[in-house]
Amino acid sequence: MNSRAHADPPPTPAPQSARSITWTRRKRALGRTWRTYRRSKMGMTGLIILVLIIGMAVFAPLLASSEGLSAAKATGGVLDPPSQHPPLGTDDLGRSMWTLTVWGSRISLLVGFAATILSMVIGSIIGIVAGYYGGWSDRLLMRVTDWFLVIPFLPLAIVLASILGRSLFVIIFVIGVTSWPGTSRVVRSQALTVKTRPYVERARALGASDWHLITRHVLPNVFPLIFANTILVVAVAILSETTLSFLGLGDPLQVSWGTILENAFTGGAATINAWWWLVPPGLAIVLIVLAFTMCGYALDEILNPRIRRRGIVGAVTGRVEDGSEASP
Amino acid sequence: MSRARDRRETAPSSEALLEARDVHVSFTGRTGLLSGISGRAAPVARAVDGVSLAVKQGEIVALAGESGCGKTTLARTIMGLERPTRGDVFYEGRPIRDDLRGYRRRVQMVFQDPTGALNPRQTIYESVAEGLRIHKLPGVEESLVADALTRAGLRPAERFFLLYPHELSGGQRQRAVIAGAMVLNPKVLVADEPVSMLDASVRGEILRLLLQLRDDFGLSLIIVTHDLGLAWTVADRVAVMYLGRIVEEGPAERVLTQPLHPYTRALLDIVPEAGGLERPVLKGEPPDPSNIPPGCRFHPRCPAVAGGTAADAGVESLCRNEDLGLVELRPGHMVACHLALKTHGDAATADAGGSPVPNV
Amino acid sequence: MSLLTVNDLRVEYASSGGWVPAVRGVDLTLDRGQVLGLAGESGCGKSTIAHALLRLLPPETRVRGEVFLNGQDVLQLKPGRLRAVRWAEGAIVFQGAMHALNPVRRIRDQLAEPMILHGQRSDKEAHLRVGELLEQVGLPAKRGADYPHEFSGGQRQRVMIAMALACDPALLIADEPTTALDVMVQAQVLNLLKELQEDLGLAMLFITHDLSVLVEVCDRIAVMYAGRIVEEGPSDRVFGAPAHPYTKALAGAFPTIGDPIFRRAPAGLGGDPPDPQALPTGCPFHPRCPQAFDECPRVDPPLFRAEEGHVAACLLVPDDQPQGVGA
Questions:
Q1: Would the CB atoms of A205 and B104 count as touching at under 8 Å?
Q2: Looking at the predicted structure, is the pLDDT value of residue B19 above 60?
Q3: What ipTM, to 2 d.p.?
């Protein structure tokens, strides 16, 4: 969009109040991002899968009775293959695989999201502070980050599980604590870039405090990157939860895809050829990780300024879509 | 090593609105691992090496020079974005550090890159309103912003509220930056190369705007530029900088048509004119502020030294060995040059006319 | 036969809204040893022309017309022949070329590369010639052993000029060669280009937005606006007595120091260069033109003759006497 001063005025009358201006601006930016996102087939596929799986988790009570999780109330026979009912067969306790998978999604997603939030919050704060302030705080924070980066994920989980017992909290904590360093590095480098931008200096010349600069300029510019990063971290977190549960470190009282797989493995599902015990949770994991990854890639394309903004127009005339007038 | 008396340092400046007094700004380079171990000192770049500059109300001063001369560092120090290693900046007689926040409402900045200076994710409204929000100024924000945009020539102001920087042309963006500065009602604008990144045909508009702001609101302007043509167009006074010092300063008509310093003369000589005459060009690169020559800092590149004129006048050894400050040779016209001093004598006996530095 | 003849060059690039014209029918002629300046601002298409002459535009562009270099139409050459022509017959110094040097290779290797690639010289001969080239651009030959970061901006630009001359081209296209440089260094590089042009008999197409620089270096100047040439003539006439209002405005942006006319009277145009996707009707300059009248939005003027060898695309020109044309 390249409207100029003497072009036609915009179709809608400009709102007069400051608040509505900010709001309009945010809505438009979101609308633009959504329209660009919609064009990505990969992004839309991933999004649809995500919506379906999250929907499954949210509407679990509607899809399968929670009573089916309890072995005592299991209705099916032991290790029944898929048939009319239950549609996905049963496990070694006679529980419907469908029920297990549907309800297991809740735990897997919960742990994934919780761990991700923990990781992103810690990582972003540290990254922004280190990147913005620089100097000794940067050096200190980066050394701390390096330390955490080196901590091996699995041994930590094992140690903590044995000390604190097996619980969801332990898993969330372990995943969160070992994945924030990656985020903080990415955020830090972006904060460094933004810090040196001329508009930040202009704000400083206007008299802005550090807080203003961080919240009004650094954060909004870092946020899209954080968001795209988050998407990918969630995928990893879910996978990590699955891994930990599969290895027996998960909460034995909760049903997650990882614990289902663990049961299946220890129950010898492979040897007795009970594929219906392994496939539903396994497929679910693959699908959700794939979905997050696809969304992440689509977002990456949006965020990558060179692909998004230049296009062909910019390449030839030097006039980039964002209007910066590089001499052609 | 005697220093010629620099009148500026001792005289009280009751007239000056904004004043830099004997400002020094040095940057230490980073020591590499090896040189740190071997004890070699990090190179110190003396970007601004003793500059005094005063700006009166309603005055437009051009700060001219090549890159590396320190003009941008000086401008940023005047804005309070850099801290001087020595000396200080005074506004209405008081050091700016006493009340930096209040100072910012009085002295504002216009930047070289209008595109970079505006946050691409914020609307023009928000960029202009930023100053108001930072200082929590009273008044209806929307009308203050509209007023500032109008003053900067963006009409009708409301049209620009929702636009983003990329939807504006280069000239309009710079006007938006100016509006963002004007919204605080400053008394002084410091403009760092305000038009160098704009298309040539659009520059005049912005310069016209700056002149108008001075005429209508009594604004003072410090314009940093490498373009002496720009100085000729808008400036009342010109200060030419070289390697961290002002080497010549005076009324624009004088300095640009009858320069006293060989460096000013060289800068004027290279401005292209129709006819393509052969003109002498200084050899070498713009100098390095971490490696300032002894004596007069310009002497290694000075055409007068190289061409023998300095030797003929008997000042060559002074040029090579004695550093000197600005001396007022004619009313309001100061220069830091041994040859000029020798040729023209002290200000006491100078008359209105006089010959410029002999053409070397 | 002239060295370079461009006939009705048209360049369009693909965009979501269809084909957008960047260059809308440009004719140029350049003889051996002549220097032609191409002036204009962002969006006028001058850089596009520079790239089009050696077919360096990206594949999403559509180029039509003829570009005769040494009698061959560059736009019709087969790839093998095209590669031979590039650099050996016409070379280009890009804008910001000083950043185009490979930071991990020595200068002498980068300078020798085009010669070796074109099979013009053996390795040994090429390295000998590197020394000559460096001296030619005012740098000591032994600096060939240095890496790019050991040179200043101005020195790197000299290296790029040396690289352009490596295969002895007859035509040198310089696209904003001095824009990013400091004034003093700019003057040095301009002097260098002038010397080289005289010594080697080069034909030069000098592209820049700085009209005053062109007056120094060029025999003739062509001014571009919105993809077309709007004025062309001898450089002192175009700068000193411009016939097109745009040229007048552009020339006004470079005041003569010492002339009181320019004191506190900045000359400038309102608005901004037109969007190639939405060109105004008739004369593309009319929205910004201080002298526009009612015919202007209706007619896109061809180049009228203002005086001998000096043409301008403005409806006012045919009515003025040649002597009356001016600021």
A1: yes
A2: yes
A3: 0.82
